[in-house]
Amino acid sequence: MTVDVTKPYDPDNIFAKILRGEIPSKKVYEDEWSYAFYDINAQAKTHILIVPKGAYVSWDDFSTKASAEEIAGFVRAVGKVARDSDLVEPGYRLLANVGHHAGQEVPHLHVHLFGGEPLGPMIAR
C-alpha cells in the first residue's frame, strides 16, 4: 500500500516506532537529527535506511517544514553513513520515494542508501 503524502503524519508508522525503540533495528548511525539502520528486506548488498528524527511524511513535507539545522543535519548524516560504509569510491545510490507514483510505503521520510555492488539501471520497467 502506498502513502498519501497529503495526509498528516502518522505517529504509529513503523519508522516512528523504530525511533522510539518499540521495534528493534540494527543501528548503523545516530545523531541528534537522524537515525540509520539496515533494511530488513535488503535490495542490494548494502541497503541502509536513513530517517530524520522529526515527524515528516515525505521529502516534500521535510523540505517545507524542517528547520535549516534539521535539513543540514539530515543531509550530512546521509553523506556520513555513505562514507562510513566505504561506498564513496565504488559508488552508491540514494533513493527517496514520495507518494503513490514513486511507491512510498511508509509515511515517514526515509532515504535508501544502496551500494556494495553494481546496481544496474536507475529505473527498472
From TrEMBL:
Pfam families: HIT (PF01230). Coiled coil: none annotated. The active site is at residue 110. Residues 14-124 form the HIT domain. InterPro entries: Histidine_triad_CS (IPR019808), Histidine_triad_HIT (IPR001310), HIT-like (IPR011146), HIT-like_sf (IPR036265). GO terms for molecular function: catalytic activity. A motif (Histidine triad motif) lies at residues 108-112. This is HIT domain-containing protein. It comes from Parapontixanthobacter aurantiacus. The lineage of its organism: Bacteria, Pseudomonadati, Pseudomonadota, Alphaproteobacteria, Sphingomonadales.
